[in-house]
Each structure stands twice: as structure tokens, then as C-alpha cells.
Amino acid sequence: MSSTFWIFVFSCSNHNFNRSMTITLNKLSIFILLLSLGVLFSSCRTSEEIVEPEPQPTVTQEPVEEEEWVVEEEAAPAETVSELATIHFGFDRYTINDRAARQLAENIQKLRDNPNTRVRVDAYTDHVGGDQYNLRLSLRRAAAVVDFYKQNGIQENRIESRGLGVYPIQCTEAQMDRDTPGCETMRRAESFPLPPAR
């Protein structure tokens, strides 16, 4: 073989080598370029990690029979008791008549509607009779009203009472009883609402 042949082979192989080197370098350049782009874009991502919410498990419920609920209406808050009825007694009596019982029943309803309100009973007599007798009679009238309240559900610790003897305001001639020497407007038991005890 001649040296020319070897030169030709060498030059061809060198040419193929150069060509294959160029292709390899081009591939390597493209790979490096892609790799650097990947690094560049990965550094631009936010530091927060995006977490997809986990799907919630579905709960299947067995059918339940519906219950009927009765909603009771709340009672409106009761107003403060501002006034209670005053009752009157017969001459020389401390018993409660029908008219007085109806008036006391209204008082009792107000006191029930306002369970924190207390009551004070002040009882009086008319001007007929001695002072000691009238004082005892007024105490009996006060006790009769207190008993009426207690028998109808008002607790004793909510009630105060006083027998004060003769009523301090005298009757006029027109107010005097026709069939007795006394005056009915003076023979009375007044009920006063009191604030709750402290």
C-alpha cells in the first residue's frame, strides 16, 4: 500500500472525526443550554409550596326519621310592677270579701309574672275605736292579706307586712258609711311592690 492511501484514509478519518466531534459538541452544547435553562427556571419558582387540597371523603348517611320539634314561644319579659291594688274591709272586720279577693288575685298574677318583685302590705283601720284596738285590728288585716298571698303561691320571703292603726287621712262627710259610724276608704290594706332583696 502506498503512503498516499494512508494519507487519504487518515484525511478521511480525520474529516469524519472532525465531523463527529462537531456533532457531539453541538449535542453537548444543546444539552448544557437546556440544563442551564432548567436551573434558571427552577430558581424562579416561589418558595411556597403549592399543596393541592386532599379530597374530602364522602359520608353516606342512612335516612333518619324526622322528629317533630315543638318550639315553645318565649314569654315576653315582664314589665316592672309599678302598682298593686288596694283592698277595703267591712266595719270591724279583717276577713277578705269577694271583691277584695278578685283584686288580690290580680296582684298575685303581677307578682307571679315578676318573680323578683317583693311586696309590702300596709293595713289600716278607720277612726272608730281606741288606738290599741285599732292597732291590733290593722295587724289582723295585714296578716289576712299575707295569708291570702301565701295560699296562692307567693313565697313568704317575698312579703313584708305592717299594721299601722288608724289611716292618717280622715274621711270627708260624703265618704262616711251610711250604715256604720266608720269610713270604708280608711279601712284598707295597701300592697306596694318592692325591688328584689339584695
Concise synopsis of the structure shown:
Helices cover 39% and strands 13% of the residues. The protein contains three helices and four strands, in the order αβαβαββ. The chain has helices spanning 3-43, 98-113, 131-151, and strands at 87-88, 118-125, 159-166, 188-194.
Q: Which SSEs are present, and which pair or pack?
A:
Elements: H1 3-43, E1 87-88, H2 98-113, E2 118-125, H3 131-151, E3 159-166, E4 188-194
Parallel strand pairs: 2-3
Antiparallel strand pairs: 1-4, 2-4
Biggest sheet: strand arrangement: 1-4-2-3
Oligomeric state of the chains? single chain
- CATH names the topology of the largest domain as 60s Ribosomal Protein L30, Chain: A
What name goes with the CATH superfamily of the largest domain? Answer: OmpA-like domain
The percent of residues in helical segments reads: 25-40%
The N- and C-terminal alpha carbons lie at a distance of: 133 Å
Description:
- The chain has 198 residues and is of the alpha+beta class.
- It folds into 2 domains: 1-39; 87-194, 60s Ribosomal Protein L30, Chain: A (2-Layer Sandwich).
- It contains 3 helices and 4 strands.
- A 4-stranded mixed sheet has the order 1-4-2-3.
- Strand 2, helix 3 (131-151) and strand 3 form a beta-alpha-beta unit.
- The longest helix is centred in the first third of the chain and has 41 residues, at 3-43.
- The radius of gyration is 54 Å and the shape is rod-shaped.
- The model has no long low-confidence stretch (mean pLDDT 80).
Main attributes of the structure:
2 domains, four-stranded mixed beta sheet, 13% strand, 60s Ribosomal Protein L30, Chain: A, 198 residues, rod-shaped, alpha+beta
